[in-house]
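Chapter summary example: a protein plus pyridoxal-5'-phosphate.
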Amino acid sequence: MTLPFELSMDTLRNKRGIKWGKYPADVIPAWVAEMDFTVAHPIGRAIAETVREQEFGYPQREGRATEAVLADAFAARMQERFGWAADPALVQPLSDLVQGTFAAVWAFSDPGDGVILQLPAYPPFHMAIHDTGRRLIDHHLRSDGERFVQDLDALAAQVDARTRIFLLCNPQNPTGRAFTRAELQAIADFAAARDLIILSDEIHADLVHDDHAHIPIAALGPEVAARTVTITSATKSFNIPGLSCGVMHFGTPELQQRFHARIPHRMLGHPSVIGVDATVAAWRHGQAWLDEVKPHLARMRDKVDAFLTAELPALRWHKPESTYLGWIDCTALNLPGTAHDFFLERARVGFSPGEAFDPEGGRGFARINFATSPRILDMILERMAEAVRSHNRG
Ligand SMILES: Cc1ncc(COP(=O)(O)O)c(C=O)c1O
């Protein structure tokens, strides 16, 4: 059976983008967070209209600035999906979320200040701390046997008076944790006790599976919102990262003013009108597509889970509660090099390297992206199993 949003291997191989272009043609890519699927029709239609009419001048939409329309669509979406009353007046449009992370780190801390980051972590978060001259306070998530959990007591011992920001990724990339209300409240209390800004990347919010739920941390209450900057976009859940459009939301006007005192609005430029059109179409009219894609992602996750259990017991993961990414522990293989290099060389499968997410402890891990068709995922898994069998044979 072909999925309604499936793309064939030939089509994927002919794409010009980085996912299928990075590795040689005999490698199956399972790395960057992008899905091997067609996008929702309303997104295609919105872009086609702009192209057909050659609307490439300075834009407005619905008789207003495009950014006001984007902010309204964001607030309406947050209310509808998560019951969170975000304020459109407190939105800063972004070209991409990494830009937003860098800008917020810059605005709410000074060189040498500490930024807490839960590890393993999406590589640009490391860069946002390192490249701005801030100090990493590494807060390792640890396995409790079932899932990755935080140890805030251990973190308390690491934090000092110059720690300014708790950089949170919820849902978490790469572990796929969707933090519970109690966990988020503990983070909020921790931040309140030390007067930290919470910078919360919630880009994967739409992709929470089973009976887990996404809770925007700013929705916990006004005191939490008053120290929270949330960044999000439609780019992961609707598969449009190349269209470069996202938003940053400040919990209060005071936070917004503090941010703009360091980063004037015009310094961030504007997302392109095609990105705005696509994002607004996704948020307003894309849910039917997402309602088909999400159960498929959960099935692909279950396929990986069943395969690891049956065929590759030396490899372990905690079944992700969200996202289409998983953090696979390959340390039991005792590989001489990195897990990434092993699977690239021996399986011809291209994962994201674990060491990019956790420079010290990540070499034996690989991040898989399972947002593909069952056919392609079967090939990835079979190739992994064959590589491990040949490794075990010596
Ligand atoms: C947690 C997280 N934040 C941000 C991004 C990238 O967002 P952007 O392309 O808008 O910078 C990703 C992409 O994988 C991500 O996983």
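Key point: The longest strand covers residues 163-169.
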